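Dear Dr. V.,

Thank you for agreeing to look over these. As mentioned in my earlier message, I'm a first-year student in the group and I'm still getting used to reading structure tokens, so any feedback on how I've presented them would be very welcome. I ran two proteins. I've put each sequence directly above its structure. The first is here:
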Amino acid sequence: MTSNLTSGEQAAAAAVERSAATSQLRFATAGSVDDGKSTLVGRLLHDSKSVLADQLEAVEHASRSRGQEAPDLALLTDGLRAEREQGITIDVAYRYFATPKRRFILADTPGHVQYTRNMVTGASTAELAVVLVDARNGVVEQTRRHAAVAALLRVPHVVLAVNKMDLVDYAEPVFAAIAEEFTTYAASLGVPEITAIPISALAGDNVVTASANMDWYGGPTVLEHLETVPVGTDPSQDPARFPVQYVIRPQTAEHPDYRGYAGQIASGVLRVGDAVTVLPSGRTSTITGIDALGAMVDVAWAPQSVTLTLADDLDISRGDLLAPSDHAPKTTRDVEATVCHLHDRPLRVGDRVLLKHTTRTVKAIIKDIPSRLTLADLSHHPAPGELAANDIGRVVLRTSEPLALDAYDASRRTGSFLLIDPADGTTLTAGMAGDSFAAPAEGAEAARDDEGWDF
């Protein structure tokens, strides 16, 4: 039956989605080496009472064995042996904790420049990034690099945590100068919201509890900001995108002709009666039913997992994308994107890869690498020839089949993709379709390939 929702019902549905979104915050932390990032995360977990007794006991024991009187809260996050031995963060560590106001998924990312790829991984799904700065050193090259990565990944909220304020006598002018320099730089990159907070992770100032040493600061603590920052968007503001994950055909006596298309709504709202286009084929139909966890509903929205039924029996399979007929993305085989190379083996022009976009995987060839980005000053190194591990640059690809890609700045979900080694399935590169800091690269003519990869 066609949905006839009133405006009030539609507003209620959107409110439910916003409420669900704001009940959980995904955020990432980043900072230069020795800025105290792991200590901040440990303090956040400890003071919010999110640490189990046996975990705290293990940290206290490890701290005493290293000659430290107070527990080293950084050990709560640096779980790898190499991390503990070197006192640095190497891999992305995910932590899950909650307060009465919100649930949190925290990605603690490394600070070393050689682990830039790890920060990209951790921040790619984050709604907020916490960038640490040592109050004694101010904004350094790695700080600018982290701000640039956050801007590149379209992280909507950035917190500047100016740490170790206790080592500069809690001086307001020191904090104000750092905050102004960072805010100016991050704003020039297009970061939409920046909140600066003076803290001492070691002493606990302004992490969970307001500091008595900085009465000149009247803003929120780190935890207060995390609990109250608005996250999520009204799904009705985004065009609907539904990547098909599985086709359900029971072919039983009870359901001899049933054909349902299961998946997770990537963005937007879908309603019974909506006209949809199947991409890349371009065929059209109408939604006749929406099954959400066994209950038939008239409307569903991102990120719900549902099964759709259509008015027509179309040839639809895993990897196809359903979108509103009046807001369907264009399909293309020529992809220009910004990528972060993740693998130790360089990415070179002519490489044959698999491109995974939502639930669709196709063959692709690297046609050109126009530039490599220097994140410290946002300069471009033209025609680098290859991208090494942790490099960020522009690439031009040609795919074997059309893709329904959105621009990454319009949709982080349907504008992103992965490049995969076709030989062993290793993830090589993370990509973001469309423009970023670099100008669009000129498309290159496809060269003849005699080994079956001529697209």
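The second protein is here, in the same arrangement:
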Amino acid sequence: MTTYWCERAWLPDGIAGAVRVEVADGRITQVTPDAPRAGTVLGGLTLPGFANGHSHAFHRALRGRTHRERGTFWTWRDRMYSLAARLDPDAYYRLARGVYAEMVLAGYTSVGEFHYLHHAPGGKPYAEPNAMGDALRRAAADAGIRLTLLDTCYLAGGIGVEPDEVQQRFSDGTAENWARRVAELAEDELFRVGGAIHSVRAVPADQLSDVDNGTPPERPLHIHLSEQRAENEQCLAAYGRTPTTILYDHGVLGERLTAVHATHLTQLDIERLGAARGRACFCPTTERDLGDGIGPARALLDAGVRLCVGSDSNAVVDAFEETRALELNERLASEERGRFSADELVAAATEHDAVGWPEAGTLAAGAAADFVTVGLDSVRTAGIEPSGAVFAASGADVRHVVVAGREIVRDGEHQLIERPETVLAKEIEALWQF
């Protein structure tokens, strides 16, 4: 058994002081406030580990490389496709281990990887059909983060459009073929497999339920939903219905479904997502980077939709920045403050169930031993109330990270991968050299 003593800790019923947390076999066995100091001392504020609900690991290589010219989401996508064409399993493994190490350093203890880069150029399967997914599994294991591979079905280049040369790498041809490949992935202690529908643009309506049925019932199902107005316009032109209505009509809306972005929704869309008790994953730093717009987070929560957050394109990897942006974006859109309480924001930030880890996300006996300690003595956090860390702290203030009872970050240093910034610099530069 390992004992931690937290100066302050964010417990299910609020922030407490002098909290002893006892850990054995990757689980929290006991949490005791007002306890005498013993074991490993964690100064500052300890919170449940943050959940990264939506990531495209390879997009990290685009950071700082798409701003030279004015453009649109679609011109950004062209550059992203150019990058995708350069990756193979070995290169992806090397890049992703740096990306996942950066996530842990920023406070994330689990990540849902929305994975659609499956095959070799031209769409030819690798000798090991899941070589790219396995590269991500190995990278996450090296970095010490829980990974749910949200293996993504991607069959079309648009509604009624065949995949182009790059998109052929994403496609299994049919949802049935996709499900057959995904079934070959084996889970382990820190690796789980869920499913994803890339979007209603990329999966024909008559195959949506096949993806739903092909995803194990106990695992999550995600989809990009109404991220761009153009997506809605194309969907209305082709089907006469919104993307949410198409999911509703095909029986895909449900508690395990997470709608990623959910930016441009009608009132009926919001009501249907709420009635289904699904989730919406907001990715504020990416949504502002791409000019997507501000989604109706408060309205969705009020309707019964559970919220989570993700780093998406990894233009920014910072759990605190992503979390507080839910509130700050709402302030801009509504011209009001106090749209979310700090507790509501932390609940969204620690929604591990959205990526298939329901045992994580709380500091309580029986929960997974995943927690993050943030310093309250930096230039950013000095003088704040502890609950204000959600608004004041950044990933740079993360001091200590434990995942499944294992110490991954100590005193701000990753314990498994030496100098992740060097790993990232080397691999990203190599990708853009050819």
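From my reading of the second output: The mean pLDDT is 96. Residues 89-105 form the longest helix (17 residues). Does that match how you would interpret it?

Kind regards,
E.
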